[in-house]
């Protein structure tokens, strides 16, 4: 009977098959051990309920809420989920009403959802809140302002300021900034929340002014038109109506009111509710003849409150905008998407911190663990990183983030020229002196800094060169602002040298190209900067890398409470066509332009600056700044074609050595050895193109694999010579054949690995 050993001795094909299978097994094993991107596996999904108005007049806003939460859920799932468990959204339509909210809340508590993200309005949140409370199910709203949402409800949290804060800020804004001493108020009589808010505004404004009239609008479609006309008749008859506080939260009701107001010819200034601070609201008026003749006819100049304005937001908010637009065909999100995205951040963090069992029997226990985790997010020290600043909840489970005021212009929502920021610890300041100087305003027992807004633009003329750790560029920078010239006293912390005159400063605030006063007494300053700037590069993926080049400045003289640089959306003509954005980068031979983003920035200092009064202080000061981030992708195919061709030829030469006769010991060892030394020289030349880095770049793994391949012919020949000397010529032959198979298999595995990990970055 023929044994397995005898079979292999007599069957040459079997030997080749065995060798090939062994080599393939080795290659596949190595490939499987290669690092892979983490993904949420097929484990049990963690359900998160989302309650939003998906039908009716608020449907577009509700869909934005869902889309933004889903955007974050997708990111979490791509990165491995929550301890390996993917997130699954359970979406419910609350119809934007209290009755609808109660109905979906009853459905949600019967599911295995561990947390709820919703609702949009205060009326809906209050109605559903008691049901969540009874079932000990935590909920987070991104936008509901009424104090009752979280009052005495330890299972409800909010990502936004309260109605009291909103009323105070809007009142002092109308009086201190817009200089109105009288006001009128309109609210929807179908909303309890709007009625309460109108009373709050009346009280806050009435402390230092006079509220002439408060009207309850009948929003019932059958009575709405008549009710609006009656209000407008009384408004027109009022000799000094002042500013009109429009506390309407339903966009269709506000639309009807504004159309009637403008068509009546009344020019009453309007300060609108947070719910109207969406650019989508301004575009509702496209269908009217007045709007077609004069874009912005109904909304230009209208002020609105908002918890998030993207022109004055930081890098994280701009990344959210870009990701949302890529996912939704260029559609721009509003504060709704941003705040519920932050709610999703807080929810996922709580789920991660909880020791969840995720079984039908553990739902109650898991919900309690989630609530405990949310409740522990209770100070800036443990805050999460959000789009609008640190995410945490105060003692009332509310957010301490500030109210922002914006103004509509050409359908765009722009930060108003002055803002107010809350003073957390007024006792640490010389309040009488600051109040007298006008730097601080007071509303009841609250104090606010006056924050100047500087409309800022950086327009690139040309990006000349990218080096190992720096780049050289030429650009215009401009500022539009009220008041003195403090906003132009800036510095570029990454500046290395003036590329035109090395002995001159890279930026001189006293030497603008233009300095003039434009409409409404706004100062305009234009500068041109040409210089070299250092940049932090990440070469881990080199040469398959993309790099972010950042131009940034800060103002070391004023804190960010007093001054903020916002994106001059109109001056920069954003969004720009792709062809115009690419123009400054056309001179770069090895780089492709991908995208550019602008964002408000800050730099932080904890220095006492030698002041004895600050020796025991732990206060950190944030200084305002502004950044432009340019993302460029290396032309990898061009780089590989120019630089790796010699390595490919050397690899072929090394492989050919395995086909040399067995008795050619010197050529079989010297050729791979020479190729190995040549590869080392090539690697050193590549490394000279990079700065000193403390990690291995992607290209180096190619070389390390190549060095291993060079050793194969040398090792095989050395072992084979010994085998031949001892009379095992056949063993030498099979060893050589195995090496001929293994060599290309390793190359195939290497190519496969780089194709999987970097294939998408080649084009």
UniProtKB/TrEMBL annotation:
Give TM segment ranges: 12-34, 644-662, 669-686, 701-721, 741-760
Presence of the UniProt keyword Lyase in the record? no
Domain of life according to the entry:
Bacteria
Q: Leucine-binding protein domain location, by residue?
A: 46-409
Q: Which UniProt keywords apply?
A: Membrane, Signal, Transmembrane, Transmembrane helix
Enumerate the InterPro entries for this protein: Leu-bd, Neur_chan_lig-bd_sf, Neuro_actylchol_rec, Peripla_BP_I
What is the name of this protein? ABC transporter substrate-binding protein
What is the protein's species of origin? Tumidithrix elongata BACA0141
């Amino acid at each position: 009977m023929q044994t397995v050993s005898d079979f292999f001795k007599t069957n040459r094909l079997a030997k080749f098959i065995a060798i090939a299978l062994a080599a393939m097994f080795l290659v596949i094993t190595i490939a499987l051990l290669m690092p892979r991107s983490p993904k949420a596996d097929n484990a049990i999904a963690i359900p998160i309920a989302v309650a939003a108005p998906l039908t009716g007049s608020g449907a577009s806003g509700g869909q934005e809420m869902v889309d933004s939460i889903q955007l974050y859920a997708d990111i979490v799932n791509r990165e491995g989920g929550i301890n390996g468990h993917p997130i699954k959204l359970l979406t419910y339509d609350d119809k934007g009403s209290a009755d609808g909210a109660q109905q979906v809340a009853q459905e949600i508590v019967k599911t295995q959802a561990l947390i709820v993200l919703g609702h949009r309005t205060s009326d809906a949140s209050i109605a559903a809140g008691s049901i969540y409370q009874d079932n000990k199910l935590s909920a987070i709203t991104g936008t509901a302002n009424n104090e009752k949402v979280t009052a005495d409800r330890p299972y409800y949290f909010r990502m936004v300021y309260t109605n009291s804060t909103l009323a105070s800020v809007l009142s002092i804004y109308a009086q201190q900034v817009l200089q109105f001493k009288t006001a009128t108020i309109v609210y929807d009589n179908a909303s309890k929340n709007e009625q309460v808010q109108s009373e709050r505004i009346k009280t806050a404004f009435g402390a230092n002014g006079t509220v002439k009239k408060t009207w309850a609008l009948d929003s019932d479609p059958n009575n709405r038109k008549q009710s609006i006309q009656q209000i407008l008749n009384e408004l027109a008859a009022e000799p000094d109506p002042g500013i009109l506080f429009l506390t309407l939260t339903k966009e269709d009701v506000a639309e009807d009111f504004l159309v009637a107001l403008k068509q009546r010819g009344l020019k009453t200034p309007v300060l609108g509710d947070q719910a109207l601070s969406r650019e989508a609201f301004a575009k509702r008026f496209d269908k009217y003849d007045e709007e077609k003749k004069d874009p912005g006819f109904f909304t230009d100049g209208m002020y609105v409150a908002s918890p998030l304005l993207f022109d004055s937001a930081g890098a994280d908010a701009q990344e959210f905008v870009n990701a949302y637009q890529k996912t939704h065909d260029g559609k721009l999100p509003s504060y709704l998407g941003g705040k519920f995205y932050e709610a999703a951040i807080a929810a996922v963090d709580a789920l991660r911190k909880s020791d969840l069992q995720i079984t039908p029997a553990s739902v109650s226990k898991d919900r309690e663990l989630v609530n405990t985790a949310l409740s522990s997010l209770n100070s800036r020290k443990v805050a999460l990183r959000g789009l609008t600043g640190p995410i945490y909840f105060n003692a009332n489970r509310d957010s301490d983030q500030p109210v922002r005021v914006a103004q509509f212009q050409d359908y765009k929502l722009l930060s108003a020229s002055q803002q107010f920021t809350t003073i957390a610890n007024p006792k640490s300041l010389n309040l009488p002196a600051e109040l007298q100087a006008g730097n601080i305003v007071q509303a009841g027992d609250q104090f606010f800094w006056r924050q100047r807004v500087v409309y800022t633009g950086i327009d690139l003329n040309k990006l000349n060169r990218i080096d190992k750790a720096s780049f050289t560029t030429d650009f215009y920078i401009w500022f539009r602002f009220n008041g003195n010239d403090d906003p132009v006293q800036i510095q570029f912390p990454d500046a290395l040298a003036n590329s035109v005159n090395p002995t001159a400063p890279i930026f001189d605030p006293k030497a603008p190209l233009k300095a003039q006063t434009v409409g409404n007494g706004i100062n305009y300053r234009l500068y041109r900067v040409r210089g070299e700037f250092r940049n932090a590069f990440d070469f881990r993926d080199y040469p398959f890398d993309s790099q972010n080049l950042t131009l940034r400045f800060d103002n070391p003289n004023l804190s960010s409470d007093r001054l903020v640089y916002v994106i001059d959306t109109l001056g920069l003509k954003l969004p720009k066509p792709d062809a115009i954005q690419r123009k400054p980068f056309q001179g770069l031979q090895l780089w492709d332009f991908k995208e550019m983003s602008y964002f408000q920035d800050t730099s932080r200092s904890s220095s006492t600056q030698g002041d004895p009064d600050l020796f025991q202080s732990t206060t950190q000061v944030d200084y305002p700044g502004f950044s432009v981030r340019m993302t460029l992708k290396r032309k990898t195919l061009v780089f590989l074609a120019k630089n790796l061709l010699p390595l490919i030829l050397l690899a072929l030469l090394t492989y050919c050595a395995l086909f040399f006769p067995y008795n050619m010991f010197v050529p079989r060892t010297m050729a791979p050895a020479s190729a190995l030394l040549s590869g080392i020289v090539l690697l050193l030349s590549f490394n000279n193109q990079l700065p000193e880095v403390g990690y291995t770049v992607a290209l180096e793994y190619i070389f390390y694999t190549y060095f291993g391949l060079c050793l194969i012919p040398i090792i095989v020949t050395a072992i084979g010579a010994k085998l031949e000397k001892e009379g095992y010529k056949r063993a030498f032959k099979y060893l050589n054949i195995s090496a001929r198979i293994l060599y290309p298999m390793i190359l195939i595995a290497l190519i496969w690995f780089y194709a999987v990990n970097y294939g998408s970055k080649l084009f």
